[in-house]
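Structure first, sequence second, as always.
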């Protein structure tokens, strides 16, 4: 049952990144859109993420619940040493959701308040995935120092370092790329399709550059990312699969073939990136400075708790997944 719980944990993290990441990417694209096209972009983004923007955070809630109930020691260590980026992440989620709602349903819709909501939505869409990546980079890179003697080294430098910030920027670029690719299949306007393909290419290039920065920062901080990625068979296969899927994705776009396939390819590519990193660190979930770590296979709750949690997740998925599928189906049919 422990492996079932772990499977749900990683599935929730992956789905939150694929769906919630594209959700954040909508605001990132809006941030880098000219004033002339911003209103049209905003309308298209709203049609795309409107049906699912709130449901996306279900995966984050499931992740938190699994950690809190099934792995309380890991949860407490992360909330202690990474409480600052976690707080910024949560504030960004709240600010973004509030702005997204009020800028569309505000009864007054004055220019001043609309500008406030727009800026809040755009910048929180950038900050939130940035700190999501920072948290992930900090947990897996051995930057957390449990032996630190002062506040700065314990609670600031554990996440405010070159590697974690580089991972944060890489996460932002991936979110923008996902959103642009998803939107290509959402609009029928030739001009909009060309515009979003151009943005997808730009974010693709930025993601590659940020990925390079991650490797450079890894060498500076002595994280050893190259050894993670290229010293593990599963990780290496995942990297190759991600590269091939990217090539196929741009071939389909250039040949103007079925644009719906590019969404699956983009999601597959990002999933392979997550697998390439996660497989090298499994079962370790938090790595401390000095080499010690916390493992999902040993630092978990009692057997009875894990069994109950696993049963709850299995039963809950029987209700949640069909309902979520019907949600997507309903809104796609409504648009048609």
């Amino acid at each position: 049952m422990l492996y079932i719980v772990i499977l749900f944990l990683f599935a929730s993290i992956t789905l939150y990144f694929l769906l919630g990441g594209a959700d954040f990417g909508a605001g990132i694209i809006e941030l880098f859109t000219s004033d002339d096209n911003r209103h049209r972009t905003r309308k298209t983004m709203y049609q795309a993420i409107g049906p699912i923007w709130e449901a996306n955070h279900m995966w984050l809630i499931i992740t938190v619940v699994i950690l809190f109930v099934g792995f309380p020691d890991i949860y407490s260590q992360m909330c202690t040493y990474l409480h600052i980026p976690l707080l910024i992440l949560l504030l960004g989620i709240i600010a973004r959701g509030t702005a997204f709602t009020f800028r569309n349903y505000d009864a007054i819709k004055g220019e001043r308040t609309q500008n406030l909501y727009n800026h809040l939505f755009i910048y929180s869409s950038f900050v939130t995935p940035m700190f999501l990546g920072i948290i992930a980079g900090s947990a897996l890179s051995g930057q957390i120092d449990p032996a630190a003697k002062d506040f700065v080294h314990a609670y600031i430098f554990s996440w405010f370092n070159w590697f974690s910030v580089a991972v944060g920027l890489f996460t932002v670029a991936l979110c923008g790329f996902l959103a642009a690719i998803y939107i290509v299949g959402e609009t029928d306007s030739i001009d909009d399709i060309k515009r979003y393909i151009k943005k997808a290419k730009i974010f693709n290039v930025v993601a590659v550059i940020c990925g390079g920065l991650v490797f450079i920062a890894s060498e500076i901080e002595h994280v050893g990312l190259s050894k993670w990625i290229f010293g593990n068979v599963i990780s290496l296969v995942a990297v190759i699969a991600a590269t091939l899927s990217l090539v196929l994705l741009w071939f389909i776009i250039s040949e103007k073939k079925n644009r719906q396939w590019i969404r699956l390819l983009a999601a597959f590519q990002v999933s392979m990136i997550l697998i390439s990193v996660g497989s090298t660190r499994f079962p370790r979930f938090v790595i401390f400075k000095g080499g010690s770590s916390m493992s999902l296979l040993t630092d978990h709750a009692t057997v009875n708790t894990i069994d109950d949690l696993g049963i709850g997740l299995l039963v809950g998925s029987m209700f949640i997944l069909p309902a979520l599928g019907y949600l997507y189906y309903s809104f796609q049919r409504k648009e048609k």
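Margin note: Residues 9 and 66 are 7 Å apart (CA to CA).
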